[in-house]
Specification:
binds nickel (II) ion, single chain, about 25% strand, globular, 3 helices, alpha+beta
């Protein structure tokens, strides 16, 4: 397993639509294991493949407190959205920033697992938020894209300061 480097705004891979996965081979399984490790290392609840510079429709999620219930969604599709609320968002690709974005309260997603089998998952609250956030990544959309241009500029400045401090 390996920790993969996370790319930040405005890396081009974060701003384009990712490609569907068609080959469910051992390289895919290795990538998913690496994405789990990278997510845990960065203390994230989710990570999408574009965030590690891979333009594929893959994301990993673990919202459990013990950090031991990871799962992946491949080629995900939102089937049902219910309700609406503003939810606090942050992103490993825009580190050091947070803001509220509009999200559905509850979603049902259809996706494939690492063996290519289809499954459905319904999430509310944090899981719903996380599913929508990661699926947005696969469409080339970041949470800051929901905000006004002014707010977005402020958050990007905040991120740049944060990254300078981290060095
Ligand atoms: Ni993110």
């Amino acid at each position: 397993m390996a920790i993969l480097p996370i790319v930040y705004y405005s890396h081009p891979v974060l701003h384009k639509k990712a490609d569907p996965v068609t080959l469910f081979d051992s390289a895919l399984k290795t990538l998913i294991q690496d994405m789990y490790e990278t997510m845990y290392h960065a203390n994230g609840v989710g990570l999408a493949a574009p965030q590690v510079a891979i333009a594929k429709r893959i994301a990993v999620i673990d919202i459990s407190e013990q950090r031991n219930k990871p799962f992946c969604i491949i080629n995900p599709e939102i089937l049902v959205k219910e309700g609406n609320e503003l939810m606090e968002a942050g992103c490993l690709s825009v580190p050091g920033t947070y803001d509220k974005v509009p999200r559905a309260l509850k979603v049902t997603v259809r996706a494939q697992n690492e063996s290519g089998e289809f499954f459905e998952i319904t999430g509310e609250g944090l899981l719903s938020h996380c599913l929508q956030h990661e699926i947005d990544h696969l469409e080339g959309k970041l949470y800051i894209d929901y905000l006004s241009p002014l707010k977005r500029r402020l958050l990007i400045k905040k991120m740049q300061k944060h990254l300078r401090r981290e060095k």
